[in-house]
Specification:
binds zinc ion
Amino acid sequence: MTTVAIADQLKALIELQKLDGEIYRLRRDLATQPVQAAQLKDEQAKRTLGLQTAEARTKSLELKRNQLEAELGSKEQQIKKLQTQTYQVKTNREYSALQLEVEGLKADKSVFEEEILKLMEEVEQAKAQTVSEKEQLKVQEGELKSRLDQIDQESRKIKNAIEQLQAARAALVPKVDPKVLKQYERILERKEGSALVPVRGNSCSGCNMLLPPQAINEVMMNTRLIPCESCARILYIEPEAGS
Ligand SMILES: [Zn+2]
């Protein structure tokens, strides 16, 4: 009587373990979904920051160019003013002094002009960078949306599968003695989805520890549930194929 009962309970537990193993595996999969979504959003945020940086760089370069152009304009005005004055001077000394000043201003002017040219190139580069960042962001936004949708669908699929497995599990539970079930579920929780494991080549297949022959004999006798001494998982002998 006891022998049959234990054997039957083990049979039910083996089925239960199959379902629970799958439920735990799916729950782990489900837990990775928000992590994946967060990573994608993070990449998107970085790309957005890249665009903002390029835009800010364009703006600041343009501002600098405008300032230099204003300064260039004022140098040009000064030069014009001085040149007009050269027509009114009376002495050579005054004339030379003005000429010298004009030369100095002209030298400043050419420095400004060079810098402005350089800045214009940089502005063009920054603008091109902005355009390319914008394009990449747009592409990535599309990808992000479709990947987030995928993640959503995948999550829903996993949740449905878990629900189905739980329904199948509920149908099996009455076949197991409540005390045994409690023991099994305690181990299941502690061992994250693996409470019942077959003996494989004289070892526990849960923790790979070699089992004493006495323990293996007891498992074979099927008179009570035998836990692995090292990991506490319940042991069983895998039925021969076809039986
Ligand atoms: Zn073990």
